[in-house]
Amino acid sequence: MITRQKSGQLFDKALTLFPGGVNSPVRAFKSVDGVPLFIKKGDGCHIWDEDGNKFIDFCCSWGPLILGHNATSVREKIEQTLQNGTSFGAPTALENELGELIIKNNPFVEKIRFVSSGTEAVMSAIRLARGYTKRDKIIKFDGCYHGHADSLLVKAGSGLATLGTSSSAGVPESFSKETIVLPLNDREAVLKTVKEMGDQIACIIIEPIPANNGLLLQKRDYLEFLRRVCDEHGILLFFDEVISGFRVAFAGAAEYYGITPDIVSYGKIIGGGLPVGAYGASNEIMSHISPLGDVYQAGTLSGNPVAMAAGIAQLTECLKPGFYEDQEDRTKNFVDKINAHSKANGYTFEVFTVGSIFWLAFSDAEVIRSSAEIRAESMEDFKKLYAILLDKGIYLGPSGYEVGFVSKAHTAEILNEVAVKFCAALDELFQS
Predict the structure, then answer these.
(1) pTM
(2) Domains along the chain?
(3) Is 12 a catalytic residue?
(4) Is 268 an annotated catalytic residue?
(5) Is cis: bond before 291, omega within 30 of 0?
(6) Catalytic one of 132, 140, 142, 145
(7) Is 36:384 a contact under the CB 8 Å cutoff?
(8) Band of the pLDDT at 169, cuts 50, 70, 90?
(9) Which of 137, 140, 155, 268 is labelled catalytic?
C-alpha cells in the first residue's frame, strides 16, 4: 500500500488555508476516501507525489496534457517566451499566431476570442448568444457540465455530481428560470419545449461528447436532430467543446461527427497546461462582441503570452499527420483488452471510449446515453477499484463520474502494461 505521510501533512495544512483543503472540489478525494495526493512533478505519462510514489497518470490535469507531462516542445516554447516577460495586458504577436493556427485548421469558426478558462469561455458565449438573438432563455441537458457560471449551475454534472447535489447554493432562482434543463437523448422533450417557447430560446448548449458526468455518448443523428431544430426556430446551436475540442479531432466533435455548430467553446488543450479558454463563431455572430458590438466581455489576462506560446507548441504537434488516428488506435487497443477480460469473466464492468477519452462503468449496458442510466451504487465499486489501481501505480481522476485521458506519452507498451495490471485489479475486486 502506498504511503501518504507527506501528502497527509500537506493536506492538514491546506485545510487551514482553503475550503475543504482544496481549490477545486473533486481534488478532495471525497468520493474515493483517503488523503488526496499532493503531486510534486510529472514527466511523460508519469507523475510523482510528495511521498515519492510514482504513478502512470490518466488524469492528465483533467485533459489538457494531450502530449503528456513536461512535453519538451511546450516547455521550451514557454521558457523562450518567459525571457520577454509574463504579461502585458496588450496585444502580442503570439495571440495572432495561435488564433491563425486554430482558425486556418478549423472550418467551424471564423473569429475567436481568447479568455482564461473554459468556464469563462462558456459564460461569455452564452452572453453572446443572448445578445445576438435578443432572447433570454437557453436549453441545456442534464448530465452536461458547462462550468460554474450561475445560469449553468442547474442540474450540472462533474464535481457537482460527485458531491451528490444537482445545483449550487448562491444561485438566484431568477437566474435558474432562464435555463431550461432537459434530459439527454430525449427528442420529444426538445420538440415540446421548442414548440412552447422557441421564440424565447437563444441557444441550445450541449457537450457534443458529454464527458463530465460519465461518458454519455450520443448518436450522431441526435446531434443532427438538434441542428435541424435550431435551424427551424432561429436558435443557435452551441457546442461546448472544452473537453472534446482538440481531443477527438483537431476541430473537436464538430469535425468528428461532421456537424456545424453556430457557437463553440474551447479550453484545456489549447493552453498546453496553462489556463486558456476560447469561444468562436462566424464573423457575423462574433461582430456583436465588444469593441465591435454591444455584447461586453473583457479580461486582463486574456491572450496571456506565455499561455499562447504553450498553446502554439502543443497544437503544432497535434496537427502532425496521423496524430489523432494514433491516439484513438492506442486507446481502443487498451480498452479492448480490459473489456475482453471483463466479458470473459462475466464481470459487470465496461470501459466506454471515444477518441483518446475513456470512462469506467460498472454496467453491462452496451452504451449509456444519459445520467439517469448511471447506477449511484456503482460509485462504491469505483471507490474500491480506485484504491486497488492506486496501489498498482495507476492514477485516475478521483471520481467515478470523471473520464480518463490517454496522451501521446502513453505508448503502446505502457498501455499494455497498464491493461495487465488493470485486469488483475478487476480480478481482485470481483473475486474478493
Answers:
(1) 0.94
(2) 5-70+321-430 (3.90.1150.10), 72-318 (3.40.640.10)
(3) no
(4) yes
(5) yes
(6) 145
(7) no
(8) confident
(9) 268
